[in-house]
Input
Amino acid sequence: MAELESEFFIDYSSLDDFQRQLIDRKNSKSLVVTGSAGSGKSLIALHKAKQLASTGDSYVIVVYTKTLRKYFSDGLKALGLVNVYHYHQWRFNKRRVKYMIVDECQDFTHEEIEEMKEYGEFCLFFGDSAQSIMNFSNRKTQNVEKTAFDMGVTLDSLYFNYRLTKAIAALAEKVGEVDDLIVKCKRDGEKPNLIEAENYNAQLDKIAETIRNRSLNSVGILMPLNTKEKGNLSVEYVKDYLLRKGITCEFKYSDNQETAMELDFHSNNPKIMTWWCAKGLQFKDVFIPGCETSWEEAKRAALYVAMTRCSERLYLGFSGCLNSFFPSKYDSVFNDSGTLNML
Output
């Protein structure tokens, strides 16, 4: 429990000056905060919730996905806080509160944001337009800048990135086609690891071996698909494969509107989920197998989100050649003094 709390919630004294300024700002008006993955948006939302709980003011935290709600819920329990819902759950429990806190607000449509604004006297929105990946079919999400404009507030921007290492940010910049991510990072670290194998199942074998041999205890295995019927690049396929290899793991996937979820964020077991479900989460080690696949351009932003979930090490599995989103395996982003960081 203490370990989850320490990863989930960073003490006020350890925050930077601007983060503290936002937390200390009087709660007498709405605000919209933006920042890149790992800049501390969710952390500020949690500090705000803790403030409001201590004063007895009514509040609710709304996120879009069930997975992020589960992550928040487990962390909030460690902090003695409650009142977190995923959006569709909130719609069945709507009540007016003094403070409506919405994390990953770029996941919501204009209509959904307007609906939530009706139920909060003051609204605190947190998001990053570069991570807007919840546009499905006729669903069009609203960027953070438009949300701030509609609310008539100045957009507050967080600058520094505390999650990513500079080495991982260098690759994420190229894959996500984003700017200025490296200069915002505060930490050095290991370059991305390439797991090259003769076929896809051999990639999974190496992933299992790496988790076991390195005794990794904060692992996300992130996939582009949900179920086996959609292919082996799915949560369900990898879950079944690793279980057969003796790797106890947890997972979340959806099939025909039904959700199969066995996630306990207090445990050290690897977590397997889609790129989209991983939004807002953090792991020390992230594995993304199948990186030879020719994904359509529409998946670029989701892959960027998946890559930016790790705080220590990123592992990319592939057979043959890397997808065109990535630089060549001989690029300097993967190499140290001409030596490939291969497993």
In short: The chain has a mean pLDDT of 91. The chain has eleven helices and 17 strands. The two ends are 33 Å apart (CA to CA).
